Amino acid sequence: MIHKIKFIVNPKSGINRNPARIVGWIDSILKPGGLSYNISYTGKPGDGTDLAREAVKEGFTIVAVIGGDGTINEVGRGLCGSDVALAVIPAGSGNGFARNFKIPLKQVEAIKLLLNPQIIPIDVGKINDHHFFNVAGFGLDANIAENFEQFGIRGPLPYFLVGIRAFFNYQPQTILIKYDNKEIEISPLVVTIANAPEYGNGAIISPSALPDDGFLDLAILDKITLRQAVSNLYRLFNGTINQVSAFHSHRVTSLEIIRPAPGPIQTDGNPHQEAAHLKIEVIPQSLKVLVGARYRKATFDQ
């Protein structure tokens, strides 16, 4: 199949902002192959979704995002339910989506995937009116996302510093979770709803999550002491957080969370203020994604 590719570039993504260089690589890699492509730039929040929807109407077969997880989330929302595939040239500070789908972090290698694309359908999560492709949540992670957004400096070190400050300041809420005809009342440090394993920057919050198995993973981390957090931090980065006694995980297709008051949530790292009552569901096989060569589909589908 000869693909018609739309590139959507966020010139403000990440920490090494040089979109002109990336566009030069696109030209040098794709033009010799005779591929048809067009490049557009985002200028404000929401542009990614609008440009993606226009690309669907204009008959593009692949929309390739040059940006981070926030831009990917915007563009993905505009492609959900269509036959147009989402591709990613990672240019963010955390690049969780690229890591989850084994897309090379070297941008030249990611562009080369477009020459022979491997495309699969994946699930999409939805929390109230917000879609997510990696992880959503509230509690400490939403607090960190909100503070990181305000911090203004991108990169792993600023994120770590914001996280440490948030850990000391965050006070867990008592919440009610309903799923599979069960109700549990807890006061957790973190509640993450994972469609894929990783937040970004190598932090794996839900090792068992598979983005194409028809389920979401409800990952709960009880309140822990600073000493417990420090001694187990390495587990967040080697895929063994599920071996911490304070960690609990449940596979679900839908759930409800009732909080004492409205507050922040995060979807793929984007912070939002949202109602106290959260309704969460999986929308199976609703987004087509171009994945890296090392990506393995869900076990049942291999």
Description:
This protein has 302 residues and is of the alpha+beta class. It folds into two domains: 4-116, 3-Layer(aba) Sandwich (Rossmann fold); 130-284, Tumour Suppressor Smad4 (Sandwich). It has helices at residues 19-30, 47-57, 69-79, 96-100, 107-112, 140-151, 156-169, 226-238; strands spanning 4-9, 36-41, 62-67, 85-90, 118-127, 130-132, 135-139, 175-179, 182-186, 188-194, 198-200, 203-204, 216-222, 247-252, 254-258, 263-267, 270-274, 277-291. Helix 1 links the parallel strand 1 (4-9) and strand 2. The chain is globular. The relative contact order is 0.17.
Topology, pairings included?
Elements: E1 4-9, H1 19-30, E2 36-41, H2 47-57, E3 62-67, H3 69-79, E4 85-90, H4 96-100, H5 107-112, E5 118-127, E6 130-132, E7 135-139, H6 140-151, H7 156-169, E8 175-179, E9 182-186, E10 188-194, E11 198-200, E12 203-204, E13 216-222, H8 226-238, E14 247-252, E15 254-258, E16 263-267, E17 270-274, E18 277-291
Parallel strand pairs: 1-2, 1-3, 3-4, 4-18
Antiparallel strand pairs: 5-6, 5-18, 7-10, 7-16, 8-9, 8-15, 10-13, 11-12, 13-14, 15-18, 16-17
Briefly, what is this?
By secondary structure, the protein is an alpha+beta fold. The protein contains 8 helices and 18 strands. It folds into 2 domains: 4-116, Probable inorganic polyphosphate/atp-NAD kinase, domain 1 (Rossmann fold), CATH 3.40.50; 130-284, Sandwich (Tumour Suppressor Smad4), CATH 2.60.200.
- Could you estimate the helical fraction of the residues in percent? 25-40%
Query: What portion of the residues fall into strands of 2 or more residues?
Result: 35-45%
CATH architecture of the largest domain: Sandwich
Q: Calculate the terminal CA-CA distance, rounded to whole Å.
A: 23 Å
User: Helices and strands: which structural class?
Assistant: alpha+beta
Taking all Cα atoms into account, the compactness measure Rg is 19 Å
Count of folded domains: 2
The helix/strand series, from N terminus to C terminus, equals EHEHEHEHHEEEHHEEEEEEHEEEEE
Number of strands: 18
The CATH first-level class of the largest domain comes to Mainly Beta
Shape assignment? globular
Mean pLDDT: 90
Low-confidence stretches: none
Number of helices: 8
